[in-house]
Amino acid sequence: MLFGAHMSTSGGAYRAFERAAEVGCDTMQIFVKNNNRWHSKDLTETEIEKFRKNRGNYKIEPVVAHTGYLINLCATENEKLEKSRRSFVDEITRCNALGISELVFHPGSHLGEGEDKGLDLVVKSLDIIHQETEEMPVNTVVELTAGQGTNLGYKFEHIHYIISAVKNKKRMRVCLDTSHIFAAGYDIREKKEYEKTMKSFDEIIGLDKLAAIHCNDSKAPLGSRKDRHEHIGYGEIGESGFRNLVNDTRLKNIPIILETPKGKEMKEDVMNIRKLKSLLK
């Protein structure tokens, strides 16, 4: 099993490898630009070279990227929608420069326009983005959500629809977030329920599409539709759910990445990675 965490790129993206190694990561996730801004300075050749050098030195693989939080591929305002598409293209371009092949994104929020319209607009946005970046070997990895507010992606069927409707299906992969699916109503606590959830995932989406797992406990109860991450074993999912996950041989070589709260010293990452490893049989 590959365990890791989302790492800060403060001081340069290449610094993320040093932080990941410090807490014992096998794999990691990063932002390739400021996650709360539309625009960031272009990557320099020096930054790209340092990133690739550290990647070779530390051998922390795979490296997964996550898009910024402003992006909404089904935004109702034309200006916001266009900015979202431009920003997504920019992030794919950055991933390509750094040699990152998986870019995780949230489907978006329909903002009252309805789920069907929202999903169709997500598909249209992805088709535009894929066409503009067709020469770049970067997959777009759609993340399952908790369904808070008008967020799409809280049903396996939403993800299936997006992947089925997008023209370039080969570039579509999926990210399963344990906290999100639990809050959306998919139970993984008991072995029987876990198997039921994973069977449903495989039948509707396909385990072959799974590119990454966000491993987070949930402060919110089952089916609450609230996105609240908690440390492993301290939330509503509890140790049993993560024991089911880490001992599922179908998930070998899939990056299992923490997105749990932490301070600058990252002691929480050390604690959570140790906890996950302790659950291995």
Core attributes:
globular, 9 helices, two-stranded antiparallel sheet, 10 strands, 40% helix, 8-stranded parallel β-barrel, 281 residues, alpha/beta
Short description:
It is built from nine helices and ten strands.
> How would the global form be characterised?
globular
Q: What Rg, in angstroms, do the CA atoms define? A: 18 Å
Largest beta sheet, briefly? 8 strands, parallel, barrel
- Helix amount, in percent? 40-55%
Q: What ranges have pLDDT less than 50 throughout 5 or more consecutive residues?
A: none
Total DSSP helices: 9
Query: How many E strands?
Result: 10
What's the CATH architecture? Alpha-Beta Barrel
- The H-level CATH homologous superfamily, spelled out, is Divalent-metal-dependent TIM barrel enzymes
**Content-based structural category:** alpha/beta
CATH class: Alpha Beta
Number of structural domains: 1
- Give the helices and strands as they follow along the chain: EHEHEHEHEHEHHEEEHEH
How would you explain this protein's 3D organization?
This protein is of the alpha/beta class and 281 residues long. It is 40% helix and 15% strand. The protein contains 9 helices and 10 strands. The strands form 2 sheets. It has an 8-stranded parallel β-barrel with strand order 1-2-3-4-5-6-7-10. A two-stranded antiparallel sheet has the order 8-9. Helix 1 (15-23) packs parallel to helix 2, helix 3 (78-98) packs across helix 4 (115-132) and helix 4 packs across helix 5. The chain starts with a strand and ends with a helix. The mean pLDDT is 97.
